[in-house]
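User: I'm new to structure prediction. If I give you an amino acid sequence, what do you actually give back? Let's try with this one:
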Amino acid sequence: MSVQLFPGRLAVMAMGVEDTQLLLYPRLIPLHNMELEGEAVPLRCSEDRLSDGGAFLLENGHALFLWLGQACPPELIQGLFNLPSLAHLQPNTVSNARRLPSPSN
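Assistant: Good question. You get back a string of structure tokens that encode the predicted 3D arrangement of the chain. For your 105 residues, that looks like this:
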């Protein structure tokens, strides 16, 4: 079974302007400095925006990617994955992720 992270050429040609814009210019949302009750403020997606101590969510309308810097705070890793550090997290898996209360679950 293969998973397609990005739509094919024909699907892109059938997309509306807003969906195409999101695909080409994805949202980069910093999670490490977000307030619990605050609203996420996306940044312009650029490698320069990523920081070693940060955690970012990259969203393009078709896929979500979680980027964790090497110096990401252990408290954040513990809170998200119930693991003591980033070194204990296996890449490409979220089986350790905690299910946090949200309106959808």
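You can read the tokens as a compact description of the fold. Here is one thing that stands out. The two ends are 27 Å apart (CA to CA).
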